[in-house]
Amino acid sequence: MSTFGFTDRSFQILEELHDNNNREWYHEHKGEIRTLLQDPFAKMLDVVTDKLKNAKRPMVGGKQTMFRLYRDVRFSNDKRPYKEHVSGLLTPSGNKKDDTALMYAHLGADGGFIGSGFYRLETKVLNQFRDRIIEDAVEFRKVIRKIKKAGLEFAEIEPLKSMPRGYAEYAEHEHVGFLKMRSLVITQPQTRKVWLDGTIVKQLVAMHKATVDFLLFGLDAVGEGGAFR
C-alpha cells in the first residue's frame, strides 16, 4: 500500500468501472471506490497543500476540491453515468468553485495526468491574456523558457487555425502560437507508479514551481479569470 492508500487494486477498480459503467456495479463497489481511490486522493491533495503553503502562490486542495464521479448526462450523447477517473483541484482559496489559475490532478487507469493553467477562457478574458502576451513579449518569453527548461509543454487544446478576430496584424509575432490558443494549459502524463509510491506529490510540487510564474503572469492579465472546471 502506498503512502496514501493507493494499491494495484485501485487501478483495477478503474478498469472494471470502464467495463461496467452502470449503477448496479457502482453501488456494489462504492465502498472500495471510496477507500482505495477517493480517500487516498483527498489525502494526497492535503499533503500537496502543506508543501505549497509558503509558495509564491499557495494552492489548497482536499476532499472539498475533488470532483464527483457522477456525470451530468442531460445534454450529452454519452449516457455513461460515471466518470472513469478520479480528479480534483488545487486552488488559491481551497474552494472548488474558485474560478482562477488552478492546478488539476487526474487519476486514470493508465496513471492519468496533472495540469496547470487557464482552460477555455471567455473571449473577453482571453483577449486580455493575448494583449498581455503582446505587450510583455519579453517577460512571457522568460516564463515560457522556465516551463520548457522543466521539460513541460503546453497542451494543444482546440487551437485556432487562423488568427483570432482583431489580432491579424500580429500574425508574425514571436508568440503567435499562444495567441491562437483558447486554453493555455501545461499538462504532464503520469504513471501508475507515482501514485503507488507517493511521488505524485513531488510531481505536483515540481509542476507548481515550474509554472507559478506563468500563473501569475496570466492573473496579472485577467485578474481572477477562468481555469480548469
Explain how this protein is built.
There is one protein chain. By secondary structure, the chain is of the alpha+beta class. A 5-stranded antiparallel sheet has the order 1-2-3-5-4, with helices on one face. It has 8 helices and 5 strands; from the N terminus they run H-H-H-E-E-E-H-H-E-H-E-H-H. The model is unreliable at 225-229 (pLDDT under 50). It has helices at residues 8-19, 23-28, 30-51, 123-135, 137-149, 176-179, 192-196, 200-222; strands at residues 86-90, 102-107, 113-118, 153-154, 184-189. It has a single domain, classed as BirA Bifunctional Protein, domain 2. The protein is globular, with a radius of gyration of 19 Å.
Proportion of β residues?
5-15%
- Uncertain spans: 225-229
Which CATH class is shown?
Answer: Alpha Beta
Helix content: 40-55%
| Secondary-structure element pattern, one letter each | HHHEEEHHEHEHH
Largest sheet: 5 strands, antiparallel
Radius of gyration: 19 Å
Question: What's the pLDDT, averaged over the residues?
Answer: 92
Question: Distance between termini?
Answer: 31 Å
* CATH structural fold name: BirA Bifunctional Protein, domain 2
CATH architecture: 2-Layer Sandwich
Count of structural domains = 1
Shape type: globular
- Identify the quaternary structure here: single chain
Total number of helical segments? 8
Category by helix and strand content: alpha+beta
Strands, total number: 5
Q: Order of strands in the sheet with the most strands? A: 1-2-3-5-4
